[in-house]
Amino acid sequence: MSVYDRDNIFAKILRGEVPSHKVHEDEHTLAFLDIMPRTLGHTLVIPKAPARNLLDAPPDALSRTILAVQRIAKAAKIAFAADGITLSQFSEQAGGQVVFHLHFHILPRYDGVPLLPAHTNVESNETLAPKAAKLRAAIADLGT
Length: 144
Ligand code: AMP
Description:
binds adenosine monophosphate, alpha+beta
């Protein structure tokens, strides 16, 4: 099995070497907006523990991450007035993975609206920032 690359872009985000539009952080997980969103509010949730993808994730990190995914998905549906949520996770290149630190995509969906193709365009900080603020507020509104 391939090894974890400590210089992948999400590891750099975790170390604070690369900026991100954070919407949630706790001891075990981090969530931030995708810079090339496939839908309004496209959010990524990652464990802080190093894991390449679903196939090598330690069980504890994986279970804590999926619980964060559920919480953020609920908030994203509210924040972005979505009709539903698509969850996606790609493991290894053949599975569609591009960044090799485990991540789940939370994709707010709207009736009859297809997802944009992946990597279509990079959204600006100016338009991502208010979306992150909106999602952070919706997460806070969920309570504990
Ligand atoms: P994948 O590995 O195919 O599941 O996709 C990686 C995702 O990371 C893509 O949706 C990219 O748009 C996203 N991405 C890449 N670099 C960044 C970054 N610096 N900040 C936020 N999202 C990113």
